């Protein structure tokens, strides 16, 4: 039997996600999830990616990408977005 997930609204999920971000050992000032959507059952978090002047990724970009990927894993078993 597959585990079921709880419905959650976008704003509540962002509050929970940002708590996880701030408590994480890889937290950096300015790292924040500002949006989330669900694509094919996967929660996709969005926010500042710390791109350089040319719009290219920086070292901080990798850290943010990894954090948003971490959030997707943490919340995948718990929640799905309400319509």
Number of strands: 4
Q: Please name the CATH topology.
A: GMP Synthetase, Chain A, domain 3
User: What Rg do the Cα atoms give?
Assistant: 13 Å
Strand adjacency order, main sheet:
1-4
Low-confidence stretches: none
Number of domains: 1
- What is the tally of helical segments? 2
| Mean model confidence by pLDDT | 93
Largest sheet: 2 strands, parallel
CATH architecture: 2-Layer Sandwich
CATH homologous superfamily caption: Protein of unknown function (DUF2498)
Cα distance spanning the termini: 24 Å
CATH class: Alpha Beta
Overall morphology:
elongated
Provide the β-strand percentage band: 15-25%
Protein name: YciN family protein
Organism: Buttiauxella agrestis ATCC 33320
Pfam families: DUF2498 (PF10692)
InterPro entries: DUF2498, YciN_sf
List keywords for this structure.
83 residues, alpha+beta, GMP Synthetase, Chain A, domain 3, two-stranded parallel sheet, two-stranded antiparallel ribbon, 2 helices, elongated
């Amino acid at each position: 039997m597959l585990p079921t997930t709880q419905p959650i609204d976008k704003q509540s999920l962002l509050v929970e996600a940002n708590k996880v971000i701030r408590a994480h050992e890889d937290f950096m000032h300015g790292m924040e999830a500002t949006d989330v959507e669900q694509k094919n059952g996967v929660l996709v978090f969005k926010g500042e990616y710390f791109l350089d002047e040319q719009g290219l990724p920086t070292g901080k970009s990798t850290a943010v990408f990894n954090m948003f990927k971490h959030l997707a894993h943490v919340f995948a078993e718990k929640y799905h977005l309400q319509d």
